[in-house]
Amino acid sequence: MFNHLPPVDMDTRTQARIFLADQRGCTETPGGTSCHTLNFGTYTAEGREPFGPLCRFSDETLRAGAGLEAKSGVNTEVVLLPVTGGLEYRDDQTAGFLESGQIGVFSLPAGRSYTVTNPYETETVQFLQLWFAHGSSGFEPGFSAVRFDLSQKNTLLLLFERPGDAPVRVLLGRFDGRREGSYLAAAGAQGTGVFLFVLQGVFEAANRLLHEKDGLGLWFDRDEVIEFEALSNDALVLLVEVPR
């Protein structure tokens, strides 16, 4: 059903894989649409395995008044990023509202569920869900919300960082057309992976053309500078760094 691209060696130190938007696994329900860049639920395809600890990358749309519930079988950090509109969130410990310009992070113990709901009467909402698997060492359940300001253009803003033996970073940037950016991926002893996802517009990254909702996964075995360029105005790119 799907035509998937095999890994491509950029050089002896780097591997790359493109995740095209139209090859995602999309599920339509009465409440909305969920599109998975990585294998999740009933969607499985070759080359869409978890990207290091990043085990879910879902682009979600919820219709007015609709909600969804999710539960992970392992300790997981759940990153919620509203793109259009806002979200109500709840688990058995906390509840609140996230709006555009905020990111919410559940540190969710294995087996605990959470819900997100579209509170609007007529409008749909769009948001991203990212799941990062976490071992038991240093894991503390909880929820945190952080504001960010995308009026700071042409730079990457740090939204979330998990320190420790398996560090994770999530960054977001809004770029003007023809503006360039870069990111230093620190590989450490085991190597590192960087996943780029275009939320809006068009980018060229690591000599590859990425359109809206396309992704690019890169693996490095030593420190590497990733260079990219926005090819349209108000282009948005999300960058995730994970350990190998």
Structure in a nutshell:
This protein is mainly β. It has strands at residues 8-11, 14-19, 25-29, 32-36, 54-62, 67-71, 76-84, 87-90, 95-98, 102-108, 113-117, 125-133, 142-147, 156-162, 168-175, 180-185, 192-200, 203-205, 208-210, 215-220, 224-230, 235-243.
Account of the protein in words:
- The protein is mainly β.
- It has a single domain (8-243), classed as Jelly Rolls (Sandwich), CATH 2.60.120.
- It contains no helices and 22 strands.
- It has strands spanning 8-11, 14-19, 25-29, 32-36, 54-62, 67-71, 76-84, 87-90, 95-98, 102-108, 113-117, 125-133, 142-147, 156-162, 168-175, 180-185, 192-200, 203-205, 208-210, 215-220, 224-230, 235-243.
- Strands 1-2-20-17-22-15-14 form a 7-stranded antiparallel beta sheet, with no helix packed on it. Strands 3-4-5-12-7-10-13 form a 7-stranded antiparallel beta sheet, with no helix packed on it.
- It is globular and about 40 Å long.
- Mean pLDDT is 92; it is low at 1-12.
Please describe the topology of this protein.
Elements: E1 8-11, E2 14-19, E3 25-29, E4 32-36, E5 54-62, E6 67-71, E7 76-84, E8 87-90, E9 95-98, E10 102-108, E11 113-117, E12 125-133, E13 142-147, E14 156-162, E15 168-175, E16 180-185, E17 192-200, E18 203-205, E19 208-210, E20 215-220, E21 224-230, E22 235-243
Antiparallel strand pairs: 1-2, 2-20, 3-4, 4-5, 5-12, 6-11, 7-10, 7-12, 8-9, 8-11, 10-13, 14-15, 15-22, 16-21, 17-20, 17-22, 18-19, 18-21
